[in-house]
DNA sequence: CTGAAAGCGCTTACAG
DNA sequence: CTGAAAGCGCTTACAG
């Protein structure tokens, strides 16, 4: 039995494979309800397996980029990278959405992971890129079920083997921040981190912690704060840190936003940066560059991460496999003006 | 002669109208070259007039947002507004692109305004939103020819009657900046503006200028600088301003980026803000909020502008007409910590 | 350069 | 719940 399958799958391809009529397959594709559940399930499975796309064939290839929170300096860098990679020939269109929006799942029905994933597939998206977004296991599974590849940038939870992700060497970044501060002579340092549950935050902290400990200057427990990655956390928790009886001489912030918030907390108290306090940020977004003083940061190559995510997504969409399910790009230390030797006591 | 046109136009509709065969229309649609130029032109015209979309009918409605420069704090706010409005039922997909990319215009051919516009139409975009982007007259014309509505946000050149645009009350914004500084007691003020050719920059400057002049404190010619809207201009030109023998006591910057650059120039020189110099920004992006000290700004409602642009674009795409070809949303003064009374001499 | 005709992929009213 | 058959929108090899 030679199943001829030259080009793209048609209704006839599926009908033959399923042993049903073309009409029945058509009904399943169009979501009519006069098909038995069993037949429907089997046909749907076959449609997926054959990458059935409808007669439109391939429309313009499109990748959907999903952000969780508000767009910010961080997302800009990632998007720039994605956009530039997408502009390279042959070119992909980039769709932007927040959460599960932008996909029509049918008249006002509540959007479930499955309906969203099916909508994404039906809209013809080649792949989905999710950015620092807690994609649930359900979302990922539904997407896989709909045959839409998913690439996660900077996953909050450690990468499962079944999800492809792109991150940065956060642990190494924490180390370089510690080494920089140690080399300047700081020994009483604090960590003002982001969400405790976030994998990237944990890695940054552990790299930082271990290096200081090895150097004989362990970080005191009361100088370790896990808050959120946002500006407000820098202002509030950073301010509280400064109000201590014995404040640190340097702070490693878990993000640029936190660092910038901390710098505002310093200004309000007349604490000078870097004379009275050294601050190291993490990310190297435009915020770091525009900060006054310009921020010393551990740079994570966000644009490059966006570019790699896009190219990986395209490769998966083309049916190729990827060498590794998780890629980590190298961080690097960028020294600007927010760090200096501690004052002589 | 009753031309029956119930639903969507088909090849037959066009063929009948053009007095040619269905086959010929099909060839035009598919860009085959065995059609005479005259026939092709006529058929293309008819395809447009009938809003021919192909059998796919309406795909998921999609709006293409085109940015010129790099994504920045400014674009974030606009995009947030567009995205939120797009997420409201019934929901539109949002495509992001920079310049004329993201559209497949055929094998490696140089992208001309016409081929781009045709590609946009063929890709099924309902409308295009262009952000602070020098859309050329050619682009706009080509888009109009392809029946794709265009809405420009914050047009660089004064809105022509034929282009729909959304802006802010820049002139009034300039006035409110001047009034704020006058009320604090400043009389020796400078304008550190963006691109001289940009309409929004001119309006800001004129509103500012006229108010100070009326108040009897005209801005000295040597304290008026038109640079670019970027950070670097704030650092360099702003720094030069501070190095004058008689520096101003307050500066109205044409954008948040310029203001933030100026604040860095101040830091480098030990000039305190607002004690030694008051700074007013323009935009109210996240940069203003995160600046240290937080920036007093003339706020332009960028998110709202994004939302209005999207809704206008959708209305145009639906064939409705708009009341006004140019809408200006109100600016407002947001007082934060970068302005204060001038020091007593 | 044009179109009649064959044929493809799909949908749907209807018979079973 | 299923499918034979009619028919629609479109494409294309080919004759003129």
Largest sheet of chain A, if any? 6 strands, parallel
- Find the count of extended strands of chain A (DSSP E, 2+ residues): 12
The 3D shape of chain A can be described as elongated
- Quote the beta fraction of chain A: 15-25%
From the helix content, strand content and strand pairing of chain A, which structural class follows?
A: alpha/beta
Report the CATH topology name of the largest domain in chain A: Rossmann fold
CATH architectural type of the largest domain in chain A: 3-Layer(aba) Sandwich
Taken in chain order, the helices and strands of chain A follow as HHHEHEHEHEEHEHEHEHEHEHEE
Largest interface: A-B, 49 and 49 residues
Total tally of structural domains of chain A: 3
> For this entry, what is the oligomeric state of its chains?
homodimer
Gyration radius of chain A, in Å: 25 Å
CATH class of the largest domain in chain A: Alpha Beta
User: Which spans of chain A of ≥5 residues are poorly predicted at pLDDT below 50?
Assistant: 1-6
């Amino acid at each position: 039995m030679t199943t001829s399958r030259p080009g793209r799958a048609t209704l006839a391809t599926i009908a033959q494979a399923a042993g049903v009529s073309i009409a029945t397959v058509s009904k399943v594709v169009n979501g009519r309800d006069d098909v038995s559940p069993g037949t429907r399930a089997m046909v749907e499975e076959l449609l997926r397996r054959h990458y059935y796309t409808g007669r439109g064939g391939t429309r313009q290839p499109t990748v959907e980029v999903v952000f969780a929170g508000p767009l910010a300096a961080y997302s800009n860098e990632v998007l720039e990278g994605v956009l530039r990679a997408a502009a390279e020939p042959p070119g992909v269109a980039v769709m932007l959405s927040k959460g599960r929006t932008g996909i029509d799942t049918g008249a006002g029905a509540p959007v479930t992971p499955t309906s969203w994933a099916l909508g994404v597939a039906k809209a013809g998206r080649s792949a989905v890129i999710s950015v620092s977004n807690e994609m649930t296991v359900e979302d990922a599974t539904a997407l896989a079920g709909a045959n839409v590849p998913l690439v996660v940038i900077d996953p909050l939870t450690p990468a499962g083997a079944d999800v492809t992700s792109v991150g940065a060497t956060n642990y190494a970044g924490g180390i370089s921040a510690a080494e920089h501060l140690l080399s300047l002579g700081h020994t009483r340092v604090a960590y003002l981190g982001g969400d405790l549950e976030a994998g990237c935050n944990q890695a940054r902290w552990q790299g930082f912690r271990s290096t200081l400990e090895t150097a004989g200057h362990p970080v005191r427990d009361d100088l370790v704060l896990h808050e959120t990655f946002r500006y407000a956390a820098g202002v509030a928790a950073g301010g509280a840190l400064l109000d201590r009886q014995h404040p640190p001489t340097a702070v490693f912030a878990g993000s640029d936003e936190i660092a910038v918030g901390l710098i505002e907390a310093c200004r309000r108290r007349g604490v000078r940066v870097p004379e009275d306090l050294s601050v190291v940020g993490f990310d190297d977004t435009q915020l770091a560059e525009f900060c006054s003083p310009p921020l010393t940061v551990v740079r994570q190559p966000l644009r490059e991460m966006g570019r790699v995510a896009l190219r990986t997504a395209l490769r998966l969409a083309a049916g190729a496999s990827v060498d590794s399910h998780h890629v980590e790009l190298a961080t690097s230390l960028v020294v600007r003006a927010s760090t200096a030797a501690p004052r002589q006591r």
